[in-house]
Every structure is written in structure tokens, then in C-alpha cells.
Amino acid sequence: MGKYDQPARRPAVVTGASSGIGAATAIALAAAGHPVALGARRLDRCAELAARIVADGGEATAHPVDLTDPGSVADFAKQVTVALGPIEVVVSNAGTVEPGTVYEADPERFRVQVDLNVLGAHRLVTEFVPGMVERRRGDVVFVSSDVAVRARPFMTAYAAGKWGLEGMVAALQMELEGLGVRASLVRPGPTWTGMGMDWSPEDTARVIDGWVRFGHARHSHFLRPSAVADVITTVVNAPRGVHLNLVEVSPEAPLSDQEEK
User: Fold this and answer.
1) Fewer Cβ atoms within 10 Å of its own Cβ: the N or the C terminal residue of the chain?
2) Which are the catalytic amino acids?
């Protein structure tokens, strides 16, 4: 194998794979030829999706994982390696968001959200990246959010978590430079996912009104999870010698009926 060659078989891990961007990414990576291990707390949904991927001719397995539990993450890493072999690709996608203000948020709930968004990603790094460094190849993609650079109100710990995540990844990218392992950020804008779907109408209205008030809702279009998944697949399959450090993905505005004057 040459210095910049990729192996023919590149097993991938996707967390938060039970719905939204994670589920779409598992489908996209499998369609691109990657054996995929799906991880989430909702094992039943991952198992259903893995079965669909296998029925469509792909290779997929499903495993439970709670990224806030170090033991669960360690067990997950062992299980997926046994199932698929050394992991070449990790997509760190799990996250959570609750409506509300920072000053009214329960400190324990705030901590849990930051734990999942930052420490959960770090637990994946410690389990998978040392092996990638030893093999001198691998890709780790972290799904962030545009709140990391443009904080949105009334989302409790979400902005804090994503800001922390991007700080960690910025340092990681420098530490991995020259070691053959690419750490990348994909930063989506508003996306139709499972997050926020269980909010009350009152909470949803308060959040959206806050976005409008501070200029964060320029138009009504949202991204589809499959669009973000396609970007993640592109990042992972970039040729060796190319590092897509950061990709911002925004929903395109609807066509305007106004003609330019």
C-alpha cells in the first residue's frame, strides 16, 4: 500500500444513529461501500435501520451506546471492532438540546447536555483515535452546529456544548497533523432532525421567536438530514493528501419572486 492509499475496506462507526443526521449518515456511508456500525441508546431503532441497510445490500450492525457512560463507550468500541475489524471512520454525531434559558436551566440538566456534546465526543476519541494513529490512517468527523459561531438563544446548554466541541477539535487537528489521521468538523445550519420534535408548542414558539429577534432566522428553509449525510460522506472519502478541516452547510434560501432592480 502506498503512502496515501486508502484500504479497500473502511469500517465506519456512527453515533446518534437512531434518527436524523446519524441515521442518514449510516445509510449514505453504507451506500458508499463502508461497513457501518450504528450506535445509540435506542438500540431498537438502530437494529431496524441496520436490517434495512443489509436488505439493500450493505453491511451493518447495531450496538447500544450511552456516550455519557465511559464503560458503555468502551464496551461499544470493543463490540464494533470485533464485528467489523479495525475502525477506519468515526462519525461523532450524538447530541441533545433542551429549550429554555441559560439562567433558568437546572444545573444537572445543563451538565448532562455538555457531557454528551463534549465529553461524549472525547470518549470516542480516546477509544478509536490511538488505533488510527498506530495504523497511520483514519477519519474522525464531528457534527457541530452553526451555534458554535453564532449562538442562538433559548437552547440552554447547546451553544456551550458545541463551542466546547469545536475548541477540542481545533486542538485535535493540530495534534494529529502529520500522523495520517484527519479530524474534521461539519457545521450544519438549521436541520430537520428528531431534536426539538418533542418540545411543547409554547417552547418551540419561544425558541423560534428568539431566533427571529436576534436575526438568526433569515428564511424558513431547513436542511434535510440526507444533505448533511452527503457532506459527511464527501469529507470521509476525500482523497488522501486532502483534508476538509471544516465544512459549513446551510439551507438554501427559497427563490425570491422579486427581481433585482
Assistant:
1) C
2) 144, 158, 162
